[in-house]
UniProtKB/TrEMBL annotation:
The lineage of its organism: Bacteria, Pseudomonadati, Bacteroidota, Chitinophagia, Chitinophagales. It comes from Pseudobacter ginsenosidimutans. GO terms for molecular function: N-acylneuraminate cytidylyltransferase activity. SUPFAM superfamilies: Nucleotide-diphospho-sugar transferases (SSF53448). This is N-acylneuraminate cytidylyltransferase. The keyword Nucleotidyltransferase applies. PANTHER family: HAD SUPERFAMILY MEMBERS CMAS AND KDSC, N-ACYLNEURAMINATE CYTIDYLYLTRANSFERASE-RELATED. The keyword Transferase applies.
């Protein structure tokens, strides 16, 4: 089965301005994802979808071609990842290349590696619509998450009689690192509407998705600790 890796990298970012090419531990953030993708895929099957000339320059400096410039209407704050994926698939279809699987790799996951990508792909089969990377959430809706009712009182988000968090069912959150998607299913509906989805579990320390300045500071700290020589 032919697989296309897509790395969306919009130029605009409000949480951390210019984050996709901002240096993290000496390397542009997007470089971590490019390097991980290259451990698994040939360059011709890696698609950087961006609207930014600056990002294109950084990608070219890595020796990787950018197949197209993403249209402005797909580069706004409200543009959906689904539309970005469909646009990329259509571009390659027009070039005579059709893919069976799409692997979505967000540039904001610098601790995801080629091994993670390979392991997620190994779980995929044609009976599922998507394999998605997850980590066990500490914000368990059976225990620590609450919503307001119509009278303004807090009620548990999910009812259950548990006296400790350890007794609660495990709950998983998408960590944004790896999505292995059935391309045919994606042509029919958004990956957010899929029902046949299975998990690929990643450790908390590999699951950081950079969205805020605090996330960035934490990533810098993690990188510095990982780079300390072991005695």
């Amino acid at each position: 089965m032919k697989t296309l890796a897509i790395i969306p990298a919009r130029g605009g970012s409000k949480g951390v301005p210019g984050k996709n090419i901002k240096p993290l531990a000496g390397k542009p953030l997007i470089q971590y994802t490019i390097e991980a993708a290259r451990e698994v895929f040939a360059d011709e099957d890696i698609c950087i979808s961006t609207d930014s000339s600056e990002i294109i320059q950084v990608v070219h400096s890595q020796g990787l071609e950018v197949p197209f410039v993403r249209p402005e209407n797909l580069a706004t704050d409200t543009s959906s990842t689904y539309d970005v994926l469909l646009h990329a698939l259509e571009h390659y279809k027009q070039k005579g290349k059709e893919y069976d699987i799409v692997v979505l790799l967000q540039a904001t996951s610098p601790f995801r590696t080629g091994d993670h990508i390979r392991e997620a792909i190994s779980l995929y089969n044609q009976e599922v619509e998507m394999i998605v990377s997850v980590t066990e959430t500490s914000s368990n809706p059976y225990f620590v998450l609450f919503e307001e009712d119509n009278d303004g009182f807090l009620r548990k988000s999910k009812e259950g009689k548990f006296s400790s968090r350890q007794e609660c069912p495990k709950v998983w959150e998408y960590n944004g690192a790896v999505y292995v998607i059935n391309a045919a299913a994606l042509q029919e509906r958004s990956h957010l509407q899929f029902r046949k989805v299975k998990k690929y579990i990643m450790k908390h320390e590999d699951s950081l998705d950079i969205d805020t300045p605090l996330d960035w500071d934490f990533a810098e700290l993690m990188m510095s600790r990982r780079n300390i020589p072991q005695i």
